[in-house]
Amino acid sequence: MVIVLYILVFVAYNMFAFEPYYAGFSVEKVEYKSVMITVWDVDGHEKLKPLWRHYFNNTDGLIYVVDYLNRERIGKAKQEFQGLFFIFPLMINSIILVFENKKDLRRAMSPREVCNGLYEGLDCLSSTLKDVKVAGFTSVGHMF
Known about the structure:
CATH superfamily: P-loop containing nucleotide triphosphate hydrolases
Subcellular location: Golgi apparatus
Helix content: 10-25%
Radius of gyration: 15 Å
Order of helices and strands: EEEHEHEH
GO molecular function: GTP binding; GTPase activity
Number of domains: 1
Number of strands: 5
Shape: globular
Binding site for GTP: 44, 101-104
Mean pLDDT: 67
Number of helices: 3
Strand content: 25-35%
Strand order of the largest sheet: 2-3-1-4-5
Keywords: ER-Golgi transport, Golgi apparatus, GTP-binding, Lipoprotein, Membrane, Myristate, Nucleotide-binding, Protein transport, Signal, Transmembrane, Transmembrane helix, Transport
Largest sheet: 5 strands, mixed
CATH class: Alpha Beta
CATH architecture: 3-Layer(aba) Sandwich
Pfam family, one: Arf
């Protein structure tokens, strides 16, 4: 199984190993209940977009991380999310998770602010959208 983790903005730590994040991409293999998952962590830097075809083709899932504090970049996040389905139409058949990063902080945008337009033009996703509540990691990597 291959999953792409797409992060639009640079983050301080890799989500699996909590190692420093490097611009570009990183690859992690995660085994869960005897299923091996290869995770490609790619960022949205313009110079790297021509390489995306190597990551997004033949993927089984997409984890798209939206920063709920970054109001200045939410338009870009929407544009990138929508663009993925036009560039890679087969992604529609993949498992798609939208992670709401920093949603718990006081200055975070409301879900309506973030969703307004994020799914616009992607009517084929509307029947499969689900709101799933999960626990997360604190900024120091501890479960809460």
